[in-house]
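Notebook entry, cofactor series.
This is the third protein in the set we're modelling with a bound small molecule. For this one the ligand is pyridoxal-5'-phosphate. I'm keeping the input format identical across the series so the outputs can be compared line by line later. Sequence and SMILES below, as received.
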Amino acid sequence: MIYQRSSQLFAEAEQVIPGGVNSPVRAFKGVGGTPLFAKSAQGAYLYDEDDNRLIDYINSWGPMILGHAFQPVVDAVIEKAKKGTSFGMPTELETQIARLAISMVPNIDKIRFVNSGTEACMSAIRLARGYTKRDKIIKFAGCYHGHSDSFLIAAGSGLSTFGVPNSPGVTQGTAKDTLLAHYNDIDNVKALFEANANEIAAIIIEPVAGNMGCVPPAAGFLQALREICDANNALLIFDEVMTGFRLAKGGAQELYGVTADIVCFGKVIGGGLPVGAFAARNEIMNHLAPLGPVYQAGTLSGNPLAMAAGLAMLETLNNDTAVYQRLEEKTAYLQQGIDRVLRENNIVFTINRVGSMISVHFDAHPVVDFQTAKNGDNDTFKKFFHGLLQEGVYIAPSAYETWFITDALTYDDLDFTINAVAKVAQTL
Ligand SMILES: *Cc1c(COP(=O)(O)O)cnc(C)c1O
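Returned structure with ligand:
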């Protein structure tokens, strides 16, 4: 495969954009080499500026659950764009998507739309702090909740790729209110509550972690967090930016039967446009301005293009009763195939999967938290990544990322991918 034009475009971008990219994980720092520049995409395929075709397992980091340029979304956006792209006034469309989202997700009465997952999580903890009148939050090492200050503490993916445990620019004052716990370690969480009695506003968690590879919650872990929060009058925030509308209509709450107090969304809910949202029961959401004292706002929040894209996406997911089953079956098929060919080549590995989220780790031990995720052999991952790229299979350029399976993938695509993995495995 030739990347001549991509390399040239990257060199030009580096002159005017820090690192040549507008989001760090795109830069291939974790795997070496220069990033591909996208030209177009359709269904399960990406086409780069050198006209290489790639089977896409990133899917814009999650939103494209039904494939790229999904027709109902494209049509909805074009239709709306002709009538004006933002008004700074409410539109009926916002009520429509809010109603639909609330009908799909358990335990929420109201939802507020923002422009990114970062904004959703940032606003959710402000709301939790305002509601509980407490300052501290617990987050888990390896979980990513966007790049707002409170969360840039052992935050997975981009940060782990670069080995930056914490970001300069985050003040000590902010960092001291974020307590760090180990994923899947309930005793650790209990100890933090004991040491900070009546000070913890909320626990925020990716109910299935997706930013240190895919790390499922241990049996009973989410339920135990629910009970600890109830016992301590703290809120449980599920960051479902990745899992929401992906693992089930009602996300991880539905899949695991555990109720969160505030739920954050992004990615799929925007159908590929910049959208985030956070939602909760009335008693919590009514604390938000203009009803209540907790302030949150946005010039382009709920804009018609984003809402039209999100509504078309959610309507499709809501009406297609078999979509989550298909995603489950396709991803299980991929998992079994990769498992088989890696074994045949005596590769040391672990595969984690929940629904259509999957990750391959080059380590023999179970990957259950950030520490065990970091044990993976990064040199092998780099070879794996570049080998697959040569075969026309595009996975995330970091050992700490989940692959997102799209319904646009055919079984031929999956077989092609498994064959590519078999070929690459011989070189590892
Ligand atoms: C992607 C992601 C975010 C941040 O969303 P942005 O839209 O990139 O700001 C937050 N939480 C989780 C779990 C995510 O995967």
